[in-house]
């Protein structure tokens, strides 16, 4: 069966790879390449940072973690780290999907994948092309006439589906030179989330959550605030050089939409958890296409 996948971010590429592996003839259509997607801006720590009342999250997370362990892909490293919780916060369902998870008071300790997303996306695109998938870079304004299609177009997926529940949530991050950090740290105790995710050459420091933001121009004041917060959280970053600031627009929906509607399988609304949920969702997409 010929299937069109709308979108070339981490969700779209994962779906295309799985569909081609299942024997389908696949074309990916996207307005821009993977390096220009929101996925390329992500911090890249594999765990669901947004709490949602969705029992599928833990399963999708565990499936993605299993795939990344098997792939041994460039840009992926497994490191132990900490997530600091607000006092009395209940243990999240996804914790059991992590490697060697421990709760110590109001912090969670576990090992997971840290993904340098631009490097990984480049590798994944090459793997997708090697499976015979065609990639076309052009904007899509409708899904009509495409035949069987997977709607994984990130922020563009909502308009393509006529779904007004999708909103952009801006996220600014700062890259600092990596002084040799051996663990990641995420602090969820404040009004926002502060994190430092090391990738060997750089540390992704964040972040912000700005519902409705429409531009991707970094704010110098926000950059300074992120650097201050991260250096307080991780003192080893005190002298680390500021390399760059970048902004991504997360495709947020109150509940991830993964369902079939006629010839369309919708797979969108992952917010900032695309890298965490991608391979689990892709497996479900293959199943839905075969229904």
Could you characterize what this model shows?
- With 291 residues, the chain is α/β, with parallel strands linked by helices.
- The protein is 26% helix and 33% strand.
- It is built from six helices and 14 strands.
- Strands 1, 2, 3, 4, 5, 6, 7, 8, 9, 10, 11, 12, 13 and 14 form a 14-stranded mixed β-sheet that branches.
- Strand 1, helix 1 and strand 2 form a beta-alpha-beta unit.
- Helix 2 packs across helix 6.
- The protein is globular, with a radius of gyration of 18 Å.
- The model has no long low-confidence stretch (mean pLDDT 94).
- Keywords: FAD, Flavoprotein, Oxidoreductase.
- Its EC number is 1.4.3.3.
- Pfam families: DAO (PF01266).
- Its cofactor is FAD.
- This is D-amino-acid oxidase.
